[in-house]
């Protein structure tokens, strides 16, 4: 259940109650594709850096180790030792990213495993069954994420198919949640709005899926090659047609600036691999911009990554030491950078929530953006 606590302009401060705990929104979900955050980060670490939601990937876990194996362990929460909310995406984006290997039909999609080449078929029912076996808190509907740019006719046909698939997802999830051996009988379902940069298709689709009264609504197919300005325009046009009294999730986004702008447009759920991927390459986020710790200027730098930061890296280690670890290809260097970046994102979301509650979001956003631009 979603409770809208406060609005500041279009920015929403909410509280989403689930069977695995309460999510304070806006929230950044920490991405653990194969049930682990890349960079040797444990679930204990995630609690220390105040992670609210972990996100895992339906397709990747289906391929390895297998969703049935995970069900044998009592579901993903027990398998990875995480007792807070988990969102699983549907595998739809992997269909998009594995374009060379796929064949899309009304029933679903046939494609080859990226690991061993074996043939896989996934449609709405299969995606729901896999996510039910995983027992995640929130399951995502199975959709097609069309490429950018796409011809108008292709986009419309794709969105129409995604809508038909959504009805099938809802029906199958209702059935699975009633089964006696289901891992999580309270599993929630989020639908996904598509339409690329065609605002009329986006709006029409938003209106249609809103009638289904789902647990939440996502915007998919953004941050796939369009400009930031185009993405913000689509959010401006589309978000008002999604239910305000439900969570709004912008999938796969993004940079701190993207998040700050999207919150201002009514979005309250986010996920992105940037903080972990950048951290593994020595790129760290601060309130004064992004730093590359491989730079020689940090060789003798006694300071933490960011003065005043309370993350595990900044509490104990210097820029010089972390740079040494990265240069020596020691896993600890990557781990510390990933922990810092996730802590930075999680802390930024706390600041965002506070600013909305105080009716000062616009001022906070401008201050944060200008600080990060002053490198």
Automatic annotation (TrEMBL):
Instruction: Report the cofactors.
Output: Zn(2+)
Q: In which pathway does it act?
A: tRNA modification; tRNA-queuosine biosynthesis
Task: Name the chemical reaction catalysed here.
Answer: 7-aminomethyl-7-carbaguanine + guanosine(34) in tRNA = 7-aminomethyl-7-carbaguanosine(34) in tRNA + guanine
The answer on whether this UniProt entry bears the keyword Zinc reads yes
Residue ranges occupied by any tRNA-guanine(15) transglycosylase-like domain in the UniProt entry: 10-371
Query: What is annotated as the active site?
Result: 89 (proton acceptor), 271 (nucleophile)
Binding note for cofactor: Binds 1 zinc ion per subunit.
Keywords in alphabetical order, please: Glycosyltransferase, Metal-binding, Queuosine biosynthesis, Transferase, tRNA processing, Zinc
Q: Which GO terms describe its molecular function?
A: metal ion binding; tRNA-guanosine(34) queuine transglycosylase activity
Give the span(s) annotated as RNA binding.
Answer: 252-258, 276-280
* EC identifiers of the protein: 2.4.2.29
Any Gene Ontology biological process = tRNA queuosine(34) biosynthetic process
Top EC group = transferase
Q: Does Protein transport appear among the keywords?
A: no
InterPro entries found in the cross-reference section: ArchSynthase1/Queuine_TRR, TGT, TGT-like_sf, tRNA_ribo_trans-like
Query: How is the subunit organization of this protein annotated in UniProt?
Result: Homodimer. Within each dimer, one monomer is responsible for RNA recognition and catalysis, while the other monomer binds to the replacement base PreQ1.
Describe the task this protein carries out.
Answer: Catalyzes the base-exchange of a guanine (G) residue with the queuine precursor 7-aminomethyl-7-deazaguanine (PreQ1) at position 34 (anticodon wobble position) in tRNAs with GU(N) anticodons (tRNA-Asp, -Asn, -His and -Tyr). Catalysis occurs through a double-displacement mechanism. The nucleophile active site attacks the C1' of nucleotide 34 to detach the guanine base from the RNA, forming a covalent enzyme-RNA intermediate. The proton acceptor active site deprotonates the incoming PreQ1, allowing a nucleophilic attack on the C1' of the ribose to form the product.
This one is known as Queuine tRNA-ribosyltransferase
Q: Which organism is it from?
A: Anaerostipes caccae (strain DSM 14662 / CCUG 47493 / JCM 13470 / NCIMB 13811 / L1-92)
The gene it comes from is tgt
């Amino acid at each position: 259940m979603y409770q809208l606590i406060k609005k500041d302009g279009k920015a929403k401060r909410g509280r989403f109650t689930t069977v695995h705990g309460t999510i304070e929104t806006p929230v950044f979900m920490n991405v653990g594709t194969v049930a682990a955050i890349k960079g040797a980060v444990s679930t204990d670490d995630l609690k220390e850096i105040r992670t609210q939601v972990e996100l895992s990937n339906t397709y990747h876990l289906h391929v390895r180790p297998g969703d049935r194996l995970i069900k044998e362990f009592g579901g993903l929460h027990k398998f990875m030792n995480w007792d807070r909310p988990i969102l699983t995406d549907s595998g739809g984006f992997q269909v998009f990213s594995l374009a060379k290997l796929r064949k899309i039909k009304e029933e679903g999609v046939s494609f080859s495993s990226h690991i061993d080449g074996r043939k896989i078929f996934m449609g709405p029912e299969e995606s729901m069954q896999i996510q039910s076996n995983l027992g995640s808190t929130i399951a995502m509907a199975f959709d097609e994420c069309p490429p950018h740019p796409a011809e108008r006719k292709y986009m419309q046909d794709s969105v129409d198919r995604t809508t038909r698939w959504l009805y099938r997802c809802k029906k199958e999830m209702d059935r699975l949640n009633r089964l006696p051996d289901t891992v999580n009988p309270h599993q929630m379902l989020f639908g996904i709005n598509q339409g690329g940069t065609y605002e009329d298709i986006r709006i029409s689709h938003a209106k249609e899926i809103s009638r289904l009264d789902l647990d939440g609504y996502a915007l998919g197919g953004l941050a796939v090659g369009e400009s930031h300005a185009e993405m913000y325009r689509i959010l401006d046009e589309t978000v008002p047609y999604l239910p305000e009294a439900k969570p709004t999730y912008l999938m796969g986004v993004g940079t701190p600036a993207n998040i700050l702008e999207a919150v201002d447009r009514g979005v309250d759920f986010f996920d992105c691999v940037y903080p972990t991927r950048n951290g593994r390459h020595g790129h760290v986020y601060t309130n004064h911009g992004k730093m590359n710790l491989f730079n020689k200027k940090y060789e003798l730098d006694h300071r933490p990554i960011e003065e005043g930061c309370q993350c595990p890296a900044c509490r104990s280690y210097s820029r010089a030491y972390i740079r040494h670890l990265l240069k020596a290809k020691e896993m600890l260097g990557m781990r510390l950078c990933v922990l810092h970046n996730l802590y930075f994102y999680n802390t930024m979301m706390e600041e965002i929530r506070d600013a909305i509650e105080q009716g000062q979001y616009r001022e906070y956003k401008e201050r944060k953006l200008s600080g990060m631009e002053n490198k």
